[in-house]
Specification:
The chain is an alpha+beta fold. It has seven helices and nine strands.
């Protein structure tokens, strides 16, 4: 499990997500997505891959016939305390003709050192858009957004925490495109690795 030393405010950011109000129409728009001309099996396997790529060592996934359940864990060290937490993902799929309609529920769960679990639904659309956008990229060959690129487009980095906080953010091996900014980052990483390997 990855861990990081931060000030205690991070805990309040995670706990504070319950304070944002989202109406029913906003919630349905944010959490549902239709994948055309595919199957439940293909969609749930793709959801599994999106989560596994985000953080291979800290993601656990379980499958049922029409649902995927997963969590991604993390550990935050603050001054004189520590907080264990995880993000929970439930992806439900329903076949409607040739299309698959999905519902994604994301929750944040933290357990401060003094005990007592705090769990809230995640109410920021950016995390849902990133998840569904990555699924679209894998299923249909579109553009894959890394966390770095998604954070540049977001008003606040922590809106993307379920997929990006302390994440490895691994790229698919093939079949997707990258934004120009992400491609430059990857080229720079490869160049640095090549230089280091020659030393």
């Amino acid at each position: 499990m990855k861990k990081i030393v931060v000030f205690a405010a991070a805990t309040f950011l995670l706990a504070g997500c319950a304070q944002r109000q989202v109406n029913r129409d906003e919630w349905l728009t944010m959490t549902t997505h239709t994948f055309p001309k595919t199957t439940i099996d293909a969609v749930l396997k793709t959801g599994d891959k999106v989560l596994t790529l985000s953080d291979p060592s800290d993601v656990a996934v379980a499958h049922s016939k029409e649902k995927l359940s997963a969590y991604r864990k993390f550990l935050i060290y603050a001054v004189f305390s520590a907080t264990m937490g995880r993000y929970e993902f439930d992806l439900t799929a329903e076949q409607k003709g040739e299309d698959v309609v999905t519902t994604l529920d994301i929750k944040s769960s933290i357990t401060p050192v003094f005990g007592g679990e705090i769990k809230h639904p995640w109410k920021w659309r950016e995390a849902y858009e990133l998840f569904y956008g990555r699924m679209d990229a894998l299923l249909y060959g579109g553009t894959w957004l890394t966390c770095a690129d998604a954070q540049e487009k977001s008003e606040a980095d922590w809106y993307l925490e379920p997929l990006c906080l302390l994440a490895d953010d691994t790229l698919p091996e093939a079949g997707v495109k990258l934004t120009d900014a992400d491609q430059k980052r990857q080229d720079a990483k490869l160049a640095k690795k090549s230089y280091t390997d020659k030393l």
